[in-house]
Amino acid sequence: MRPSIQSDIKGPVPLGGRTQLECKVNITAGVELSLKWAIPQTKTLSKTIKTNIRFGPLKVVPTKSAEYMFTMSRGLIIDKTTQRETGTYWCIVEDQNGNKKYKKNILYVIESHGNFVELRKENNLSVINVRRNANGITPPIDIVFEYLSYPAIITYYWLNDRGQKITTGHNGKYELSHTDTHVKLRINEPKVFDTGIYTMFVTAGNAAQSRRMKVYVHAKPIVQMQSKFVKTGEQVLFLCRSIGFPRPEISFMFQPCSNKPKWTNCFSQAPAASGWDSPRGIAETKIAKSRVLHHTAMRPGVVYCTATNSEGSEVTQADLLVSDLPDAITMEIEHPMETITVGDNVTVVCSALVYNYTNDITFARNGIDMTGVWTKYSEELYAEQARFNIESIQHEDGGMYRCQVKTIYDTYETRYLHLQVLDPVKPILASGKSSKTLVVELTSPLRLECDVIGTPDPRIIWFKDGIPVVPENVSNHVHLNRTTLTFEFLREDDLGIYECRAENKMGSIYKYWKVLEREKKKEIKDFENTIVSNFKTGKLMLIVEYCKYGNILNFLQRNRPFFVDQLYNDLNNPYLTMNIQKQQSGYVDYLAGQGPPDEYAPALPNINMI
């Protein structure tokens, strides 16, 4: 017998206007009910008489398609509304046993017909928190706003936390609805990803308003982390990301795996009860946190990451796979470590990481399975290895070779290697010249090239004056690679006899360079001696003259004690003398740091910048 109220005006009632409310209730034949109205201010019942409020007659009519059911109704009419009629109107239904049911209607009287929208949160909620119930089910979320507007017809839309418009699609994820007084958004099967701020925008005429609601979906953490494959001794980073609400705290633990006799894939190992580090992490969003573990990979193992919040905890793991192999499966020539030529003894090895592969390894040549293959586990590489040998290889042994490896998942993976066999060639010099004399000037650059060719590539060793040239021992102005010795500039101790020796299995060859300093003309030597012995302050033109005959930098470097230092002293003597005279006359000694000079002496020349 719950009553309902209908209004002939949707929304506020204009000041001085007329409105009618009608209260209805369904009753069963034979049941006695009373229906009354209570109005604002005094909550006066229907007996109350007011000049502009009238109550219609009590009506009882049969309900269509429902035998022995009737509908009871009574109207309330307000003429020439004033602000006094603003308030809550109640319809009260009472049966013969004194049981009462109520329905209310809030009526607003406005002074003008200006457009407006008023919104408020139902039950004055500021935030909505939802959790799984005892059955592990999270109930739907209802975000409801009550509104009052003029005109009564509104348009509205919702935005999620990412600013995206919410629609009724998404496989029934969202339901949008509204009545004459309320707008509702329902989120079905809420997940932690639904956590955020939801905003509703309402428009009535040219008036608009918006309200926001915070929604928190509490959930235990979800954890993610990726396995890593690195070389021994390499620094590796494990990124563990966790999603949940409240934001989880993250802890790490590394558990090395047994390698006796070889990797047993400790994926099945349970994490130890102790050994976890202190929980922490960096917040990314309202629901996400991450943390990075820095680790030096000395042996394989498992990294565990656990994330914990008030709703529970979750553990994930990632394998640390350690090997110096460049790939999970490699097929390569183990011997010789150079171009293969006729007559070589050749060893081919196929390596497969033990973490994901078995020792079931087979070889085939040009599509035909091979025999004479043996396998062995490498503790250094954490790999199963299979090998075959070819004694005194010939041209017909070349071709395409295949390595097939069975995985721990009973599947197969394949690698290929093309073997090419060449004829050996004794080393020869491309230039044809085996010795050469070079006359150079000191400080000039020099490049010596050992232009040797052969098959397989010859091994080259450099010598100076019969002593091997070791790359680690050469000066920083000298650069050495396999075929070239380069000097950025020559010094006197760089002069001498250089040799490159090149050899392969077919023989050897040599090339020599005799590096000498260029002899100076007699007039240059005499001129240098004249400058050193007779140079006096003011005769700088001698330097200019010397530039016509040779390298001034070389001259200055070799004769600095006689030339540059003497030049500095000669140029400074007048200033030193002046300082002594100033001291005698009462001036402060500026050389002792007690005052500035009247004039500055020239600085010592930097001959390296000439």
From TrEMBL:
It comes from the Eukaryota. This is Ig-like domain-containing protein. SUPFAM superfamilies: Immunoglobulin. The keyword Flavoprotein does not apply. Keywords: Disulfide bond, Immunoglobulin domain, Signal. GO terms for cellular component: plasma membrane. Pfam families: I-set, Ig_3.
